[in-house]
Structure prediction request, 222 residues.
Amino acid sequence: MRVVLIGPPGAGKGTQAAALRIRLGVPHISTGDMLREAISARTVVGEKARGIVEAGRLVPDDVMAEIVRERLEAPDAVGGFLLDGYPRNLDQAQTLDGILEGRGKGLDHVLHLALEDSEIIRRLSGRRTCESCNAPYHVTSAPPRMAGRCDVCGGRLAQRPDDKEEVVAERLKLFRERTQPLVDFYRKRGVLRDVDATGSITQVQGRLEAALGEARIGGASR
Ligand code: AP5
Prediction:
């Protein structure tokens, strides 16, 4: 299954992807995680992206196209994927169409997580992320078992530089201006599913499962 997760910063895309990828049996491909890994490894792409990501702006489309094309060609993504953070504007959506056209397979679903700004700010200000495996936590709603340490790999939890208040404001503005138009773009194509991202992590997970269809998810996970 080829699925895209779309939603404002802090809507819970990374959190929900952790369970969804297992249910769907496809890799979770997060362009934000890939960029953060490149930044911490100080690769050429990482050095280009560092200042842009930390300021909450968008990495140039040609750089992103290269990263995504290469990742989608990896053997684990040939049978499907859960793409999180890409596309982020109409040019990127067209690039993705081009990549998929080459395979003769379009997107099955675009899941749109919708959330109000006040809750986005609450979630991002309390977010802590594992520096080793990128697993997301929240100081109150999703705390780790041991303070400051990742449940999955024991890595150190830290606040992302782009979760500072002024950077969050820039990311939200960019989401509204550049990414929100994709909601209509995919709605017109008939692949969009709107999902209310308010409530607990489990409640949102249930809505995502309902949106995808219980039978299809059950079939894919066997
Ligand atoms: P990226 O990492 O993709 O950031 P984002 O889209 O802004 O999304 P976030 O990771 O901030 O939020 P999320 O929705 O995954 O929320 P999470 O699950 O963590 O991109 C980062 C940067 O990279 C961009 O700003 C840009 O610079 C660059 N970039 C990436 N892709 C690009 C592209 N295609 N083109 C150009 N540039 C690109 O949850 C947030 C918090 O809330 C956590 O603490 C979590 O525990 C908590 N939480 C989650 N769900 C719930 C719930 N239901 N109830 C309570 N708490 C919850």
Residues 217-222 have pLDDT under 50 and may be disordered.
